[in-house]
Structures
1.
Amino acid sequence: MKPQTMQQVAKLETGIAGFDFVSRGGLPKGRTTLVSGTAGSAKTVFACQFLAEGIRKAGEHGVFVTFEESPADIRRNMTGLGWPIEEWEAQGRWAFVDASPQPEGETIEAGEYDLGALLARIEHAVRKTDARRLSMDSLGAIFNQLDNGPIVRRELFRITAAVKELGATTVLTSERIDEYGPIGRYGVEEFVTDNVVILRNILEGEKRRRTIEILKFRGTAHQKGEYPFTVMPGEGLIVIPLSAIELRQKSSTARITSGNSKLDEMCGGGYFRDSVILASGATGNGKTLMVTEFIAGGAKRDERCLLLAFEESREQLFRNAAGWGVNFEQLEKQDSLKVVCEYPEVMGLEDHLIRIKDVIDDYRPNRVAIDSLSALERVSSDRGYREFVISLTSFIKHREIAGLFTATTPTLLGGTSVTEAHISTITDSIILLRYVETYGEMRRGLTVLKMRGSMHDKQIREFTIDGTGMHIGEPFRNVTGIIAGNPIQAVPTEIERLNRLFAEDT
Amino acid sequence: MAGRYDLVIIDLLEQPQLGEDERILATPTLTRELPPPIRRVIGDLSDAQKVLVGLDLRQVDAQEEGNVG
């Protein structure tokens, strides 16, 4: 049609966290957007939050047309999300149009009718409150109340057209049956609006995962694809814009200590200040010790450290640290350390991500250690976990915080974990901790596999652990196949023979 | 029926708040408030039989009553 006017679709910032980013500025202003989803996909929360954020953040009043739940139910349900709807109603900032089924009395249909009464009520409520935002929840419920489908269909066209004239930005919700099926159940949904947003609540490997997708915004741009979101008590819907993350972080050449002078040396002078380091190793291999030294090293230089533990309790961590000569209690007292312990199963991964972000923004640390990242693997699907890791890494890098993540490998000798597969390309450094079996003895080896932008020691060195921490020693000269998880002892004569071989060649 | 009823006609375009209070969706709607329970008939009343059943003004046989619920 007219390209000039197509370009000019203004957007209304919804105020829903992350959504304005995914939608590149919010919902098309003055238009109707269909929000479609299966049962329990948070449609009503979206519709309420659209109004609530308008009131809280933009001073814009809203009208809520409910076809399904009674206003009393909505008021009560939304209190948990922190929206005092009753208060707003008293202040004239929120108005309900109650079109929910009425338990008392009975209604029969005799002849032709239209929904002019409903339209008059909506127009009245919008004018009365001077509303800029309108939510209608949910379309399907009105088909259940009235028998005459064709009339209802015709009238919905009329209502959406009339609502456009009111100048309010509208959210219209509708239920669908399949997560990846038709947009709506009644075949009118796609035609009554130019803009469609889909909420999904997918069961993936016995875990629920919520996503939001903007299917179309007529005449204006938006991010494409599904984005995970979560519903948090006291906050409502939070969209996590994953693939929209930009690689824009600055890069620092300043070095910080790993807390272990020998390891610093191996890394070419310490970690970079805004880098993410992955330490991978089997259970009991010294990962928590690396974390403890990382924190102690930071605290010594008056840096603020945050430790997020998903495997051990506070008491265990404090006892372990004390065993290596580090006093966590003291560090917490002088406010250079904050320890947050959480059992991975207490919430979904999206919720964990938001919690972690909140803690980081609240405490503003210079260093963050996560022990272990791979413990979170078990509360999510593979895909969800990958998105979590990418999102968290990018968040930390944006804040220019040094991050040390640990990952537990599933096998005792060698091997890689899912975490490594997801994260290895976005981390700046990878340190491998490995068991080395030699002549009936388990020894420990460590190597810096990758150190982006810096020279580093390529040897696999033996290390020991005692009451003062980690001691990195000499390289394993006579063992091969450590990283592959298949250490083979090379006998000295063999080494000599090989050496001679090369000597003859050159 | 003459003299035995009291009828009020409301234009919802002029008094939308009344429509809100009564939670009216469709126009036209005929509401019988007394005697309780409240009964509503929506539509242009072209189906006289249904109107009478809807307002409970006519004796119906058992089967029909079952349909109306």
2.
Amino acid sequence: MISDLLERLCRQGAWRLGEVVVVPVTSGQVELRHHSDENTAPGSGLRPLERPEELRDLVRYDEAGRYRPLKGAPTLPRGWIFTAGDARALQQALDFVYPGATASWAAQQHGELRVVDLRVTLNRQTGMYRVTQKITNEQADRLVGRFCRSDEGCLRTILWRLDRDRPVTSLPAAKFDPAADQLGRAGRHLPIFCAEACNLLVAEARAVVKQKPA
Amino acid sequence: MANLKPNNSALIIVGHGSTQNPDSSAPTYAHQEEIRRRRLFSEVHCAFWKEEPSLREVLQMVEAEEVYIVPNFISEGYFTEKVIPRELELTGRVTRRNGKVLKYCEPVGNDPRMVELLLLRAREVAPGVPAKETSLIIVGHGTGLNENSAVAVKRQVALLRREGQYAEVLAAYMEEEPLVSNWRVLTGQRHVVVVPFFISDGLHSYQDIPVLLGLEGEPTAAASQLEVFRRNPYTCGDRLLYYASAIGTEPAFADIILDTAARFEAPPPVAATAA
């Protein structure tokens, strides 16, 4: 069970997932907040969230009120605190903030995480995205370097390659290293795995092939 | 409502999602929340074509062995027949893989209660307005990859006409004849009620259709940030136009999703589906 793995993780102290810090408190309860609010005392301005759905609605927008279609973007709003009563509630809350992240991590722990290279993803596309098959390796490499970069793109750790024998060369090695925190912090963290390119990247690949901004 | 008992299986509600409009996935999430509250399934997940979790990663999130997959789509078509099966690697109505049994259900728009919900929505948006003096327009997308949405709208219109409550019931589309932008010519009654046969108040129902109806100048913000529905009725010459939220935002869709999953196990007899 994913929740059992999370429970075990919490027994060893605080940990981070993307921009969220998970801090075990008492009797199986854990607190979630933005990592930059880690040292803000509860009750001193952090908005308490009681249900995972409140967190879901909050992370839909960034602090400027802009829609966040990419959940891995480093634009998680600050200023809130969510208390999960048990590991199951924790799992639900994290699934709203970083959908599928804990499940991918659990699958990786069990050696069951399937990685799909970009070329395979693109070759599968039909309809308006079929044209993405025409992107060159050089164009794809540049696109990934621009779109997926951790500082202003996405905090996921990329596991796929452009093609079987062709790694991405446009991003630092840390972007592909599960042991590296994509925000460059020290301390325990879970990586947010990217085992296959998302539809947003596929849509950007279409824009590159069509040579117009997405 | 179909008789669904609490069980140990999982439910995945599949939505289209959008990278542009935050309202697109909102109904799918709302139905997830309501169904979780009822504790009928051990897990209830959402998955999206254009948002996260993606169709590629959602199965990893599922721990139950038996999984019902319900497309929160208004009709059969490109997405239900091609994209969803491809992305989830389904091999048919039932797929057995890695110890799981994946049960691929019909899209919610096929549910026989759609007519009832369309009538409810039409009454809600124009309270106290006599149906016998009202033209009811059901709007679909039409054309291209969504070709089946026009078929689905026509089916609903035929059923609504048979109900005989409204003076007239018409189908209209965004991208094919009869065009919704011609509503003044198409309709004969003073009161005109427009119900989008869409899953969410996404770009189409919240931004594009109001422009086509002449209610808004240019598509602007997301639906939730506008007041399109609060300004009913719109006075257009001597006509009064009432514009409803997309049918898929109706909370009863949570029941429809459950019914769709229940129907997977016990399809109604052929005579009942034809009724």
